[in-house]
């Protein structure tokens, strides 16, 4: 098997899900056989959103021939990763380069895990929601938009409310009685807004 590990491994993080890794080629005489390529082993150490990781799944990408760089796609935003690089010949892999640590920046969050509308009264509705399963960063706020829908399914004016990220419920007051409302709800990080979920609910007709 090859005798030495690739040197000077560098990681350039391009965005929250993509990084580029490059390395110096090993001297050909240390390959001790036919150079087939380089393998990059990489794995997520932890999410920086403080959700613990129970098992570490190592991923391997093979770059054929004498390439000295490669792209690592499909990374998770706002996470800490480690990687190393090994050279490969027809017999197997050489030793691993020292582990290199890199971090991905924040991304936009996944949609809130649920939105539930309860306790209808004449002029109010109670909203409850769950935080995104994948915050992909530090949540800065939630954005709630809602508008009335009339009997011919025309949409009325849209109201937008920004809600602090640590809230998980809200009572909407001063609504019209016996009116159907459509709600659009999403979470935000400093990078931007995630996917929204929608719900509809009706205030009650009379007490």
From TrEMBL:
Signal peptide, first to last residue: none
Keyword Secreted applies: no
Keywords: Disulfide bond, Immunoglobulin domain, Repeat
One Pfam family from the record: fn3
Domain annotation Fibronectin type-III: ranges: 5-107, 111-207
InterPro entries recorded: FN3_dom (IPR003961), FN3_sf (IPR036116), Ig-like_fold (IPR013783), Neural/epithelial_adhesion (IPR051170)
CDD domains: FN3
CC terms in the record's Gene Ontology section: neuron projection
Domain of life: Eukaryota
Gene3D superfamilies documented for this protein: Immunoglobulins
Record's keyword annotation contains RNA-binding: no
PANTHER family cross-referenced by the UniProt entry: CTX-RELATED TYPE I TRANSMEMBRANE PROTEIN, NEURAL CELL ADHESION MOLECULE L1-LIKE PROTEIN
Name listed for the protein in its UniProt record: NRCAM protein
